[in-house]
Amino acid sequence: MLTIPEELWLLSLNPRTGKVKTTKLIQAVTGAVLVELALAKRIQIKGKKQVGVTSDQPLGNAVLDSALAKIKAYEKDLEVFLWMYELSSVQQKRIQDFVAEGLQERGTVELVEQTVLGLFKRKKWVLKDANLRDEVIQRMRAAGLENQEPTLHTLCLMLIAGQTDLVRIAESRNERAKYQARIRKLITMVDEPRAAHARNIIVAVLKANQTSRGSVTL
Length: 218
Hints:
CATH superfamily: yeast vps74-n-term truncation variant domain like
Number of helices: 9
Number of strands: 6
Structural class: alpha+beta
CATH class: Mainly Alpha
Shape: globular
Distance between the termini: 29 Å
Order of helices and strands: HHEEHHEEHEEHHHH
C-alpha cells in the first residue's frame, strides 16, 4: 500500500508531460509524513503543542523511518508547523525527491532522459502502471462524490490534497461544491475514538495549511 506522501507525489505528477507540480508539494509531503507517523502511532503531541516520539519501531519505509529518526534525535521539541519546515530535507535530500526515489526503487515510476530537437536533454517521470494514479483519484472521488466511507488514510489524503491544490478531483462547479460539502462532513471522523491517537497531529497539519485555497475550517 502506498503511503500518503507517495500518493500525494503521484497526484502531483502529470502523466502526459512527466512533470511534477512542485507548487506546495513540499508543504503537502511534509505534513503527510507527520500524519502518516501519527496514524502509525509513532508520534503524537506532547506537552502543549510539541511533537514527541511514542515509538521508534521502523515502519519499513525509508522516508517515514528517516523522518522518525530525525524527530527522535532532534535536541529541541518543536511544534508541527516547525517540523514541516525541518522535514523539507531528510538525509540531505529534498523530501519530495526522497519520496520519488522510493517509488522508483519499487518500480512504480522511472526517471528517463529525452533529447529534444537533437540538442536539449530533458528529464521526465514515467508512471510504470498507468492505472495507479487513477486508482488513487477514484478512491478520493468515491469518498467525496459517491458517499463511500473512507479510511482515515484516505480522509487525510483528501484533506491535505485539497488544501495544497495538487490535483483537481472534482471537474464541474457542481461537483466541486458537492466535494467540499462532503469533506466538511467527513472531517468529523477526526474526532472519532479510532482517530484519537492521531487527531492532534492531523489538526495541527491542517491548521498549518489553513491559508491555502480550499482549506477546511477547523
